[in-house]
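DM from R.C. (forwarded with permission)

"hey, sorry to bug you on a friday — could you get me a structure for this? deadline for the figure draft is monday and I only need the backbone to look sensible"
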Amino acid sequence: MRGLDERCALALARITRITDPETANDDLTVVEMDAEALGMRDYREGNEEPPIMFADEPILLNAWKAGQASAADMEEMENCSGCLDPELPLCPYHG
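My reply, with the result:
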């Protein structure tokens, strides 16, 4: 099931916050990065619906949406005439 690994990792990170607060922030960061990576993969596969496992978890849902947005930005730059023009030092649209 799409998003299950990230949802389980979030639950474990929350438990870690209770048992070992020093490492909890690192664990949460990894979970967010994984959810963002899933959003990027989903975008490339044409999947615009977030995983059902993220529905009631704003941390996961927001990270997934950020991944979708990042992938869209990268796709735009990959097809941008300004970015692809070797005669321009910088793209006039993306910098």
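R.C.: lifesaver. Helices lie at 4-19, 21-44, 58-78, 81-84.
me: no worries. Residues 13 and 27 are 6 Å apart (CA to CA).
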